[in-house]
Request: fold
Amino acid sequence: GSRLGRVAGDGSITEFPVPGFSAAGITGGPDGNIWFTQFFDNKIARLNADGSVTEFEIPTVLAYPIAITMGLDRHLWFAEEGGSALGRLTLIREVTVPTSAAGPTGIAAGPDGRIWFTEYLANKLGRMNPDGSITEFPAAFRPTSLARGSDGLSWFAAKSARSLSSPAPTGRSRYRSTPITRGLAARIRSSASTRVSSGRGCP
Reply:
């Protein structure tokens, strides 16, 4: 079965067995518990303080939940790679991604306080707006995981590429290409006009 691991300050590791065989994304929740996705089991699960696990079924069949994060709204948000949707655990609310079969994989709270996510199959980034709508931005080379860096920016990894196109989504498609040697990453800057810029390596 699957296990979750906890690393102590001295480097020792404690493992916690959990149901199923497909624990994937993991995050701390607003309740102080650890929450994780169960990719093939189509569930979101909570590791309780006593070591027990509580599971929550996702309504969409074959949603394949993968990454999970806590937003600045203190709700848990997760990416459904198979369902092409984002889920919010309140308990669960799903928001359909505009591009069908987009394959959302990474998700994180951005520097603008909104939920950002990657669309692996559609080569896009998505942003959840306060009114519940989704805005999509072009992003080349299969964007995968997404995280907020210590510099206050959101960074995402792009798979199998040696260069990165950087769109300025202001209604027109404007691109510039930046060579990348190792550790391909790009960052999302928060400004009046959101743009995606390229960078070398991860922060």
About this structure: Residues 161-186, 189-203 have pLDDT under 50 and may be disordered. The radius of gyration is 17 Å.
